[in-house]
Write a structure and sequence with these properties.
The complex is a heterodimer of chains A (about 350) and B (about 290).
Chain A lengths: L9 E10 L2 E11 L4 E5 L6 H9 L6 E6 L2 E2 L10 E4 L11 H11 L4 H14 L15 H13 L5 E5 L7 H18 L2 E6 L2 H7 L2 E6 L2 E6 L1 H6 L4 H6 L4 E3 L1 H8 L4 E4 L5 E2 L8 E12 L3 E8 L9 E7 L14 E6 L5 E3 L7 H5 L1
Parallel strand pairs in A: 3-8, 3-9, 6-7, 7-8
Antiparallel strand pairs in A: 1-2, 1-4, 4-5, 9-10, 11-12, 12-18, 13-17, 14-15, 14-17, 15-16
Chain B lengths: L2 H6 L1 H4 L1 H31 L2 E2 L6 E2 L5 H8 L1 H35 L2 H16 L2 H12 L4 H6 L10 H25 L3 H9 L4 H30 L3 H5 L6 H11 L3 H23 L8
Antiparallel strand pairs in B: 1-2
Classes of the chains: A alpha+beta (about 350), B mainly alpha (about 290).
């Protein structure tokens, strides 16, 4: 704590990477605090994985710098950086047992055999795989391989753990379990986690903070709650969660003002009016999507003009299980929401279909 | 109504019949053409030739094998052939590894294809042409000796020339399985090794080579067995040296002693069987 200021765990400054004429990463600056669970979220090709690979040292940045705990590592090879990676395809060594895989990092660093054994056993304990130490990776299930990869990285006690879509290959149920487990492990070991994912739900569930990537740049860095409730761009609003985004005349007709405006489906009430100050519109149910715990209603909003009506997606929890409670297709409904739930977004260059038809 | 679908579904309903139809032509070929000829070879080895009439006498005996064992020349030739096969295999492995590694892990897709063609190209040219090209290389006034002359070296026809030429001829058979083996190693596995603190050399020693052993053995089966059976290269660049193949050729044609030639031909067969049995333990045969 000298100087009263602590260096961040990772500091990226104007990081850029080009592959030929393609700018995969285009000026990314970022600070990740020590012990933070930080996610990089974005669609495929948005540059998030390239940033991760530059932190690990697998790619050389075209420009910019990378600092780990205050020291520049921009030019260091991967083996000289105090970070470890959990790969998307796990990248386990097929010719080694689970225990040998976990010991590998200690072995190449010439750690004594007894200590190596003990630390590997401890790491396998952390991921609850002690009973499979003698198996080969090919004899394990996807979830087990995932845990071995985690143990193999954690055993080195790195300053930062990088995770490249580590849960992408698992089925949904297992993924949910691993998410909870991952969060728990991160809390236990207290290491900075940098987690790359394209799954916004996963990012919201796990992270302390999230950076949303688009087209090689960061759109917004914020906590999950902030990101969901106050998206700073239409890209973030659309990518994180479901948004009803309207612009131009459609926005004026529905929300009563111009601009790019958005409201989350669960903030819209179907039928009832929650508050005398609520805004209301009427519309026709076009589609009902049954989701089990909830229904999505796609509603065509009644417009003063003819032509394509703007649509709003409304989510409604299925408190009751009787079908007659549900609005049906073609039914006239009233929609209501509180004005504070309408999110104003900076105008974007992306034109929406509604703008064109109006 | 019942009959039509019954007839049409015969193959569908009898998977064994389907399998039989699929496999009978190759099995016939393998059984008749391949195994029978091998069996004839083996049987002939246990017969003898009458030295006066040069007729084959169909009397079972072990005379041929006894001669093989007792006459020094054949032992020398066998050991020499084995040595050449081992050296050719080692030289090929050492040259093939960096080429295969570059092709599989470093080169771009485009270069990969170019290199693959470059590796395969010598296989399209005639064996004899390539052997004679090397004969020209090793000749007293050839390019090799022209290059070696300033440092006071001379490389004429002989065993070294034989090893070099054979290593050149069989190199693609070593590169291809190694390339295929390396292709199957994901880049991420190499990155993981570096990520865990291993430098390049350590990664090759602890990760790449252990994974590559089966492919290396698969390649060595080619280089080894092809060398054991070769008799032309040694004639062209080997000076007066002989390999097993030459002895077989001479016994059969010059000596007109087919049974003894057959017995001699069993030597590389036995060596290969022993080698294959040893290699099988490494799991290399799963990689062929």
């Amino acid at each position: 704590m000298r100087d009263g200021a602590v260096s961040p765990s990772i500091r990226l400054t104007d990081l850029a990477k080009s592959f030929g004429s393609v700018r995969a990463v285009d000026g990314v600056s970022l600070e990740i605090a020590d012990g933070e669970f930080f996610s990089m979220l974005g669609p495929s090709g948005s540059g998030k994985t390239t940033v991760l690979r530059m932190i690990a040292g697998f790619e050389q940045p075209t420009a910019g710098s990378i600092e780990l705990a205050g020291q520049s590592v921009t030019d260091l090879p991967p083996f000289a950086r105090d970070v470890n990676t959990v790969f998307q395809d796990y990248a386990l060594f097929p010719h080694m047992s689970v225990a040998q895989n976990v010991e590998y990092g200690l072995r190449v660093k010439k750690v004594k055999k007894a200590e190596r054994r003990a630390r590997a056993a401890e790491a396998l304990e952390t991921v609850r795989l002690s009973h499979l130490a003698d198996r080969r990776p090919t004899q394990l299930s996807g979830g087990q391989r995932q845990r071995v990869a985690l143990a193999r990285a954690l055993v080195n006690r790195p300053k930062v753990l990088l995770l490249d879509e580590p849960l992408g290959a698992l089925d949904l149920k297992l993924r949910r379990e691993m998410q909870i487990e991952l969060k728990q492990i991160q809390r236990d070991v207290g290491i900075t986690f940098v987690f790359v994912t394209h799954d916004q739900e996963e990012a919201l569930t796990l992270s302390d903070r999230i950076a949303v990537f688009n087209d090689g740049r960061i759109e917004q860095v914020a906590t999950p709650r902030e990101l969901y409730q106050n998206p700073k761009s239409s890209f973030v609003a659309a990518f994180v969660g479901t948004s009803n985004m309207l612009t131009g005349p459609a926005a004026r007709a529905v929300f009563g003002r111009e601009g790019t405006l958005s409201i989350r489906p669960e903030k819209i009430h179907l039928g009832d009016v929650p508050d005398p100050g609520a805004s209301t519109v009427t519309g026709t149910v076009r589609e009902v999507v049954y989701l089990g715990s909830a229904n999505h209603y796609v509603v065509d909003v009644d417009m003063p003009w003819a032509g394509d009506a703007p649509q709003l997606v409304v989510m409604r929890q299925n408190f009751h299980d009787s079908d007659d409670q549900l609005s049906r297709r073609g039914e006239k409904v009233r929609l209501a929401w509180l004005p504070e739930h309408v999110i104003e977004l900076p105008g974007s260059s992306e034109s929406t279909p509604i703008e064109e038809t109006a | 109504m019942q009959d039509v679908p019954r007839k049409r579904g015969v193959l569908h309903r009898h998977p064994r019949l389907r399998l039989g139809l699929l496999l009978s032509p190759p099995m016939l070929w393998l059984g008749v053409a391949y195994l029978t000829s091998l069996a004839v070879l083996l049987i002939t080895a246990f017969w003898t030739t009458n030295t006066f009439t040069t007729e084959i006498e169909r009397v079972w005996n072990l005379d041929n094998f006894r001669q093989l064992w007792n006459i020094d020349v054949y032992r020398t030739i066998t050991i020499r052939t084995l040595w050449i096969a081992v050296l050719v295999t080692v030289v090929d492995a050492l040259i093939a590894f960096p080429i295969a590694f570059f092709m599989a892990k470093v080169a771009s897709r485009r270069w990969q294809r170019v290199l693959l063609i470059a590796v395969l190209m010598p296989l399209w040219a005639s064996y004899l042409v390539k052997a004679y090209a090397w004969r020209a290389m090793f000749s007293g006034t050839g390019p090799l000796n022209w290059a070696l002359d300033p440092i006071g070296l001379h490389l004429g026809y002989g065993l070294t020339a034989t090893v070099i030429t054979l290593a050149y001829l069989w190199l693609p058979y070593m590169i291809l399985p190694m390339y295929a083996g390396l292709e199957r190693v994901p880049d991420s596995v190499l990155e993981a090794s570096a990520d865990l603190g291993a430098k390049g050399g350590t990664t090759i020693r602890r990760v790449v080579l252990p994974i590559l052993w089966p492919a290396l053995f698969a390649g060595s089966i080619f280089t080894f067995s092809l060398t054991l059976g070769d008799y032309i290269t040694v004639k062209i660049v080997g000076g007066t040296n002989q390999m097993i193949g030459n002895a077989v050729y001479d016994s059969a044609l010059t000596g007109n002693n087919l049974p003894f030639a057959a017995a001699l031909a069993c030597v590389p067969v036995v060596i290969m069987l022993v080698y294959l049995a040893a290699v099988r333990r490494t799991g290399a045969l799963d990689n062929l």
